[in-house]
Design goal:
44% helix, alpha/beta, globular
């Protein structure tokens, strides 16, 4: 595999499983050193064991705590001497009420977990990224681009996109790039208790399947690498065609040729 991250250091949040773990594996496979941050210490240890303790570091991190974010960034730089890539992967849909009934505190919880945490990770990492002329890739969602429900989560994901565009405009002249990957439905452990749901959801996708964490990792690796050196402020949907709309799903059905 091409070694696009040789000599580079990446910090990946929510890296114990799913998309985050796949991103860490991909960057490590391409020669990078990776710092995996998550609350799930046992699962973090498993991924670090897989990658090798000489090339990976596990850091316990609650992304809603600025102190813990600062400590994770400091640990990365102390261990590996630099920071080149931040992958903002932490977040999740934690509010399930009807949007007309959502209490203010629930809005705050959702925004803190998904949007504010990403902003604070950028703030903490930025001095090091300015020094290395590095970059940030944030994992948003198609929910930030179209109406798929989960209003509060979708608003937070849309906020990540606006935040990224503004950071990209502000710091591009100083050599730091900011981009977004917007996944559709991805087969992660969050779906382990609902395997039938993934079968149903696959029918919404013109490519006929839901995504795998490795699909997102490949996109992140591209945007975080020098192959994307002239790309900033971009939102890259990686979503199997779901944003093409219902007509595309119907057109994707097998046709009888006569």
């Amino acid at each position: 595999m091409v070694q696009r991250f040789e000599g580079k250091v990446a910090l990946v949040t929510a890296a114990a499983q799913g998309i985050g773990a796949a991103v860490a594996r991909r960057i490590a496979a391409e020669g990078g050193l990776v710092v995996l941050a998550d609350l799930q210490e046992d699962k973090l240890a498993d991924v670090v064991g897989e990658l090798g303790a000489d090339r990976a570091l596990a850091v316990k991190l609650d992304v809603t705590s600025r102190d813990e974010i600062d400590a994770a960034v400091a640990a990365a730089v102390e261990r590996f001497g630099r920071l080149d890539v931040l992958v903002n992967n932490a977040g999740g849909c934690i509010v399930n009420s009807k949007p007309e009934d959502t209490a203010a505190e629930d809005w705050h919880r959702q925004l803190d977990l998904t949007l504010v945490s990403a902003a604070q990770c950028v703030q903490s990492a930025l001095p090091h990224l300015l020094e290395s002329r590095g970059n940030v890739v944030t994992i948003s969602s198609v929910n930030g681009l179209a109406a798929f429900g989960n209003t509060e989560y979708s608003a937070a994901k849309a906020g990540q996109i606006a935040m990224t565009q503004n950071f990209a405009a502000r710091f591009g002249g100083r050599g730091v790039r900011f981009n977004i990957v917007a996944p559709g439905t991805i087969r992660t452990p969050n779906w382990d208790t609902q395997p039938d749901a993934l079968v149903r959801l696959a029918k919404l996708y013109p490519l006929g399947r839901v995504g795998e964490p490795e699909d997102i990792a490949a996109a992140v690796a591209f945007l975080a690498s020098d192959d994307a050196a002239w790309i900033t402020g971009l939102t890259l949907p990686v979503e199997g065609g779901v944003l093409l709309g219902a007509a595309a799903v119907n057109l994707a059905a097998p046709l009888e040729v006569r």
